[in-house]
Amino acid sequence: MTLGPSCFKLIVNKFLQNEFNVAAIFTEYQLQVLKNAYAAGVLEVTYDDGNKAVFDSEKALMKRIKFIERELYGSNDNRVATAKLTR
Fold first, then answer.
1. What is the mean pLDDT of residues 53-74?
2. Which residues of 33-68 are buried (b: 16+ CB within 10 A; e: fewer)?
3. CB neighbours (10 Å) of residue 9?
4. pTM for the structure as a whole
């Protein structure tokens, strides 16, 4: 069985939106790209490596940002809070 390009894109988008609930490794770069997109009101991002992530809403994008922050920095309540993004 061969997966076509559209199927592959669907899988990548679902993975980026964590719909598979799998552990993932994220980078500061990915986090910053998403924060920049949120601040600009953009729901679709393309990384330097060509990967794309499309979000249904600002709420979904912020959920992804918070998830990556927890993955990168842990969920320790004593950590320094990040600044709230504004437009």
1. 91
2. bbbebbeeeeeebeeeeeeebebeeeeebeebbebb
3. 14
4. 0.59
